[in-house]
Amino acid sequence: MADTMMKCFVYFMMALIVASMAGCTVTTRTVAPDEEVIYDEGYHFSDKKKIVNALVSSLLSKPPLGFSTDRPVVIVYGVANRTSEHISTSGITDDIRKELLASGRVRFVNKTQRDNIAEEVDYQQGGRVNTTTRVKLAQQVGAKYMLTGTLRSIEKKQPRQVRIKKRTLMYYSLNLELTDLETSLIEWADSTEIIREAAKPFIGW
After folding, report:
1. Does residue 26 register a pLDDT over 80?
2. Which residues contact 201 (CB under 8 A, 6 or more apart)?
3. Strands (E), the chain
4. Which of 29, 104, 175, 183 could form a disulfide with 191 if both were Cys (CB 3.0 to 4.6 A apart)?
5. Which domain holds residue 167?
């Protein structure tokens, strides 16, 4: 009887080792940019497209940008990350700017390149560049609107109880505001939300 149990144990351990070795094999595949790949309740790259589409649609359909005909100039001052995750909010604002530019309804001040622009202007004004081709001073266009925002998250975990899986609920909210720089009035504001639930087994690898 003891020998039989020992053999069963050995077979079980061998099967476990084989399964573990099989699980260590690395496999890869190409993921399409619009494919939704979700592994847990956290923020994912596919969430960015949903956020951008929702907010760009709102910006272009509501005042003031939705009714403007003069391609107003906007400056982006970024989205503050108020979550506990390392999320690149600049990627969100970059895509929003790209979509708004593609619409032909808005122009943007290149805030991130201001130092490089100033350096190039100084060089051109330093006497090395032909006066007929160098840029003129005090010709930069001032922005009419400032785009800012905040990304927040709330995590809710299932209370302690007897269960097979642990459930976690994640809530993300991105709020954007468009402020008139001359009046300091918020002319547009909107938000988009993502709510995701994950159920994780207590035992796994």
Report:
1. no
2. 164, 165, 166
3. 73-82, 107-108, 145-157, 165-180, 186-201
4. 175
5. 41-124+141-201
